[in-house]
Write a structure and sequence with these properties.
3-stranded mixed β-sheet, alpha/beta, single chain, disordered N terminus
């Protein structure tokens, strides 16, 4: 039996055409808007700092959840180093394989990039004090977390919940829910689903990576979503964090101008 042909209503077709036209009309202005956004980002970071409140680091064990290799160091390198210096147990859960970071550059082998980033992750974590056996890999596809089917999402959340239960951390650090990167935001949703399956209390902290540097140009220099963060003084371990950042030699050349500066100023920021 032949399936009936799918029909498209005139209103649906017009809506798709309108969306396509809007995308095409914005295309010539994208480079300018991105340049404006990059120039604006340092002042937005300063606003986040000025509106934040001081935070004291606890002695609770921690699990750092990172979408890609380097996010754990950028967002939480100071937390990791300070807790490890205090003898506190820290684990890192790497959610993706990281292989697509150079997908826009012809000739880069994704398999080789995956291996390179894994080596960089292990080296950076050793500098911060995390032993190899405390690093866990979920190996989801880089640039594919937000494309998971409902069944795949359910399995991934269950796997994350299983890891959390096996570690039983007192604190969990995960990227911001609106971190301006589709993989990052999908990772947050997976972790949030996993936390619904946990039957013991733990404190959750959300760290920004792309929150300021991605997305559209902001017309206000004091955006509400950046207000009220907690700031942790990590100046005592900043030199070691910088050393761990520099391990990511494969990634630093492809990051936006000034992007890394937000992670080298001696403070880390978290939302509760």
């Amino acid at each position: 039996m032949t399936a009936p042909a799918r029909t498209t209503s005139p209103s649906s077709l017009l809506a798709r055409i309108a969306r396509r036209l809007r995308r095409e009309m914005r295309r010539p202005f994208k480079p300018l808007l991105h340049a404006m956004r990059d120039r604006q980002a340092p002042s937005l970071h300063q606003w986040m700092h000025e509106s934040s409140v001081p935070m004291t680091l606890s002695t609770k064990s921690a699990l750092i959840v990172a979408p890609h290799p380097d996010d754990e160091t950028f967002g939480c390198g100071g937390v990791i180093a300070m807790k490890r210096d205090a003898g506190v147990d820290v684990h890192v859960l790497m959610m993706t394989d990281g292989r697509q970071s150079h997908s826009h550059i012809p000739g880069v082998d994704p398999r080789q990039m995956e291996e390179t980033r894994k080596k960089e992750l292990l080296a950076a974590c050793r500098i911060l004090g995390v032993p190899d056996e405390n690093i866990h890999f979920l190996n989801l596809a880089d640039q594919g977390v937000y494309r998971l089917s409902p069944e795949q999402q359910q399995k991934a959340a269950a796997d994350v919940a299983s890891i959390i239960r096996s570690i039983r951390p007192g604190e969990l650090f995960v990227n911001h829910p609106t971190d301006r990167h589709p993989d990052h935001e999908a990772v947050y949703r997976l972790v949030d689903d996993a936390l619904q399956q946990i039957d013991f209390p733990l404190d959750v902290f959300k760290y920004p990576i792309w929150l300021i540097w991605k997305g559209p140009y902001r017309w206000t220099r004091q955006p509400v979503d950046l207000k009220g963060a907690s700031r942790l003084d990590v100046r005592g371990v900043q030199e070691r964090k910088n050393k761990a950042i520099n391990v990511y030699a494969s990634q630093l050349p492809v990051l936006p101008p000034g992007f890394v500066d937000q992670f080298t100023g001696g403070f880390e920021y978290f939302f509760r």
